[in-house]
Amino acid sequence: MYKGYNFKFTKSLGQNFLKSDKVIGEILEGADLKADDLVIEIGPGMGALTKPAANLVRRLMAIEIDTELIPILERELSVFDNIKVINEDVLKTNVGSIIAEELSLDPEIKGVKVIGNLPYYITTPIIMKLLEEDGGIDSITIMMQKEVADRIKAEAGGKEYGSLSIAVKYYCTVTDICDVPKTMFIPQPKVDSAVLRLDLREEKAVTPKDEKLFFSCIKAAFSQRRKTLANCLSGFKGLDKNRVTEIITEAGISPGARAETLTIEDFARLADKIEESI
Ligand code: SAM
Predict the structure, then answer these.
(1) Where are the domains of the chain?
(2) Residue nearest to atom 14 of ligand 1 (CA)
(3) pTM score > 0.70 for this model?
(4) Which of 1, 130, 173, 254 has the most CB atoms less than 10 A away?
(5) Mutate to test the pocket of ligand 1, among 21, 64, 70 (most ligand atoms within 8 A of CB)
C-alpha cells in the first residue's frame, strides 16, 4: 500500500519514489522550466515530479514502463489537460518523433526539456540514447546514483574519469544541481543520489573527422585501465604496437600515458591521426 493505492514496488524497475517536496522543488528549479516548454519525463512513478512540473510548463509527456502505474497516474493526473502518459519502455521509445509531433501540433512550444528520477538500472543507456538520438532536446535534468554523477562530472586525471565523462562532455555542458541522500526515497535505495543538468551543446565539444572511430578509440583506450595507451590500442584497427606508438607520439601524446590522463581534445587529435593512418 502506498498513498492509498494497492501498489507493490518493483525493485527490478528501479522504483524508488521521491518523498521530499524540497528535493522535487530543487529538481524543477534546476531544470529551469519555462511556461512555453515541452517536458519529457522519464519514469513518472505516481507523479511526484509530474504534477508540479506540469503546473509550470505548456505540455508534458510522461513515459512509464509499468502498466500497474498507468491507472494510478490517470487518476492522480486527471485534473491536468496538458499531460500525456505513454506506457512504454523509454529505451524502445522514439523520443525524437514524440518531440517532432508535439512541436508540429503546437507552434507555441519553445523549449524541449527532459526531466526524471531515473530508474538506476538503466541510467547510462538512457543518457546515451537521449544524447545520441539528437532529437531536439535542449536540456536533461535527471537524478541518478551519485557514483554515476561523479563519473559524468570527472575531469581528466582522476580515477572516476572515463568514457562516460568524455561522451557526456562531447554532447553537453554539465551543471551540478544537488546531492540527494537515500533517505529521501521510498523504498530507500542502498546508495545516495545526485541531480545534474546536461545542456546540449550547439556545437560538439570537439570535431573529430570520424565520430564513430573517435568513440571506438576511447572505448579501446579505457578497456584496461592499468595498461598504457600504447598497449590498450595495440591491434586497434589492425595497427600493430609499433605503428600505434608512432601514431600516439605524432598526436603529441606519450605512448606510456594512461587513458585517464587524456583530455577530450587529446582523444580527438589521436582519433584523427589514426583515421589518417588506416
Ligand atoms: N518519478 C517518480 C518519483 O520520483 O517518485 C518515480 C521514479 S523511480 C526512481 C523510476 C520510475 O521509472 C519508476 O516509475 C519505474 O517504473 C520507471 N521505469 C523503470 N524502467 C523504465 C523504462 N525502461 N522506461 C520507462 N520507465 C521506466
Answers:
(1) 11-200, 211-277
(2) 45
(3) yes
(4) 130
(5) 64
Q: Whose Cα sits closest to atom 8 in ligand 1?
A: 15
Residue type (1 letter), 49: L
- Tell me the CA–centroid distance for residue 258 and ligand 1, in Å: 37
CATH of domain 11-200: 3.40.50.150
Cα 112 to Cα 89, 115, 179, 197: the distances in Å are: 20, 10, 24, 13
Rounded CA separation 19/118 (Å): 15
- CATH homologous superfamily for 211-277? rRNA adenine dimethylase, C-terminal domain (1.10.8.100)
Nearest partner of 88 among 40, 123, 145, 54, judged by Cα: 40
Rounded to the nearest angstrom, the distance between the alpha carbon of 37 and the centre of ligand 1 is 22
- Per-residue pLDDT tens digits for 110-160: 999 999 999 999 999 999 999 999 889 999 999 999 999 999 999 999 999
**Residue corresponding to grid cell 489537460:** 81
- Residues with C-beta less than 6 Å from any ligand 1 atom: 13-18, 42-45, 48-49, 63-66, 69, 89-91, 117, 119, 122
Max CA separation in the chain (angstroms): 68
The C-alpha R_g of the chain, in whole angstroms, comes to 21
